[in-house]
Amino acid sequence: MTTVMSPTAAPVPARPASRPLVLRIVDVRRWPIHGVTNWFGVGCVVAFLLIATVGQLIGDPTLLDAPGAEPPSAEYWFGTDTLGRDVFARTAEGAWNSLTISLGTVLLSLSVAMPLGMLAGYHYNGRLDNAIMRGLETVQALPMFVFVMFVLTLTGTGTIEIGPVTFGMRTRLIVCLALGFVPFFARIVRAATLVEMQDDYVAMLQVLGVGRTRILLSEISVNVLPPMVVQACLAMAIAIFAEGGLSFLGFGLAPPEPTLGNLIADAGSQILEGAWWYATLPGAVMVLGILGFNLLGDALSDALLGGSEGGAE
């Protein structure tokens, strides 16, 4: 008697679950671990953050008890200015101001650009998409530097009170800079959303009756987040440069509040007198932050988006 064996279907390999964004960032196996350039960028960012945070604990930027115009030494790492203030302590506080303003700018612009970009991409070629894109083009029509200087000139350097809300110079600077970044981020989010809309899972969710808000918040937003993390690092570098440039021109935080930009601006006459350290070292810290966040963005692009393998050797 012959036993008929029923054919068994070959096991279907399960689709690997998408890993959380945090795990993808810290998974060093996906980082170009031998890429000197990428790790150099990480080191620059760490050094900039240490100067901006721990550096403030080393000295007091307001004390006037040091000899004036002293070059760098073991006691005063970045030397002193003509008033006897510790340049390293002032540079550390200036780096902290640049860091907080830049971070606030990027976070505020992302919080506005993400929903705008996803809504525009979800309603591609619809009325909402056209309205959002025309609004972004209007904002982009005026260069960011010109717009920020125009607004800060109108509002002055003092504090503005609108009802219970108080807007200081720092807040106004963050809001103005963030408005300039919104079109940049929103266009990237819109393009990433359009790519996600072509995926089968979106059509399946729509057929199942899943609401638009849930699709955007629970599905599309997660998938467009990795490229935005990369762009946020690059935007941090631009924001540090923009804040430094505005402070250099006198449109940033008012003295005696130190920023990297106004430290460089105040050193003009002292450089001619031989005090090279007063502008060179704060400028080097600014370059450290700008270069570091740029290279960190490239490293995260390799890790999260599958960019070039290996990096620079």
What do you see in this structure?
It is a multi-pass membrane protein. This is Peptide/nickel transport system permease protein. Keywords: Cell membrane, Membrane, Transmembrane, Transmembrane helix, Transport. Strand 1 and strand 2 (165-167) form a beta hairpin. The protein has 313 residues and is mainly α. 36% of the residues are buried. It is elongated. 64% of the residues lie in helices and 2% in strands. It has helices at residues 21-26, 36-53, 87-122, 127-140, 144-155, 169-197, 200-207, 212-248, 260-266, 268-272, 277-305; strands at 160-162, 165-167. Strands 1-2 form a two-stranded antiparallel sheet. It has a single domain (41-64, 83-305), classed as Orthogonal Bundle (MetI-like fold). Residues 1-17 and 308-313 have low confidence and may be disordered.
Structure at a glance:
The chain has helices at 21-26, 36-53, 87-122, 127-140, 144-155, 169-197, 200-207, 212-248, 260-266, 268-272, 277-305, and strands spanning 160-162, 165-167. By secondary structure, the protein is mainly α. The protein has one domain (41-64, 83-305): Orthogonal Bundle (MetI-like fold), CATH 1.10.3720.
Question: How many runs of DSSP E, i.e. beta strands?
Answer: 2
- The rounded Rg comes to 25 Å
The amount of beta strand, in percent, is: under 5%
Helix content: 55-70%
Keywords: Cell membrane, Membrane, Transmembrane, Transmembrane helix, Transport
Organism: Nocardioides soli
Pfam family, one: BPD_transp_1
Main location: membrane
